[in-house]
């Protein structure tokens, strides 16, 4: 895919079809922002939604719970469901991926199946959840990456056996931006009677996701990054049959089927994925996420993917021209909009970029750039030029 494939008719060179949204993200008035994989830029629609929440809070106080705020939670579950190809009844809300993982982890039976398989490239939160359960007999198996870019599904398959309860891994690796074939992973797990959980924090919003087509059992993602909703709100997809059958051993009043009964002697969980919910959702975050989804829904993830793929490929090609050796998947179709540039001192590189009003991020051994639909070619060209001067490329 070339950058030209995303151009508007008559647009200036380097501008693509979605560049018209750039003006709705005020951060670009002062800086070049190439760090969506850490935190999505704040859009005016999200800001207006937050203001709407504050205005209702000020005007109505707790009375807003019974209609406006309750409806907002239902709207968010439905919109999250739509973006991952699920039904609203299969979506639970949580404040973080860690909390969502905890609810799943406390619903599994490890007596006959004590093993959980992860990969060395997954965000550590995934592994930590089950490392914390070693005293209860849970065994964590970490599948190594031969190239630090991706993990062959065949290697995951060799780690899965009849004692495996769960394969928990990423859709897009935060360490390399490589896209994993989660359908193949789910097939491998299912063949041995294991379940599959996908951490899709780095994919949902920039890469199309269909939980039904992939055949995964659990999937979690959220507002912080590519869904433009900021911190404090995530989704947990639980496959319908599991949502009815599994019962988390941690609980909160939002998971109770009749939460306003206020009966401390009985816990009856919801009949759907809401049984995995715990405490009162952070409504400011809910409203911010609804505003972020206004962009994602209006544009559509396939259109976002086309533009970000074109920007990513241009970024990778230009980085190589400057003498960098990007750590990315070998095939363009396996690359997300996360580009890792090896660096001797990544933190110093990021500081140098920041001094030029270019926001990127550092990960061990790499400067990380992540274009999104509101970026343009000039953004990553400026970043590469400044980084090359700093590193002597």
Give a quick summary of the entry.
The protein has 393 residues and is α/β, with parallel strands linked by helices. It is built from twelve helices and twelve strands.
Low-confidence stretches: 7-11
Provide the CATH superfamily of the largest domain.
Type I PLP-dependent aspartate aminotransferase-like (Major domain)
* Biggest beta-sheet profile: 7 strands, mixed
CATH architecture of the largest domain: 3-Layer(aba) Sandwich
Coarse shape: globular
Q: Overall mean pLDDT score?
A: 95
Strand content: 5-15%
Tally of domains: 2
The CATH class of the largest domain, by name, is: Alpha Beta
Report on this model:
The protein is an alpha/beta fold. The chain folds into two domains: 3-42 and 300-391, Aspartate Aminotransferase, domain 1 (Alpha-Beta Complex); 49-296, Aspartate Aminotransferase, domain 2, CATH 3.40.640. The chain is 36% helix and 13% strand. The chain has twelve helices and twelve strands. The protein has a seven-stranded mixed β-sheet with strand order 2-8-7-6-5-3-4, with helices on both faces. It has a three-stranded antiparallel β-sheet with strand order 9-12-11, with helices on one face. A hairpin with a 2-residue loop joins strand 11 and strand 12 (366-369).
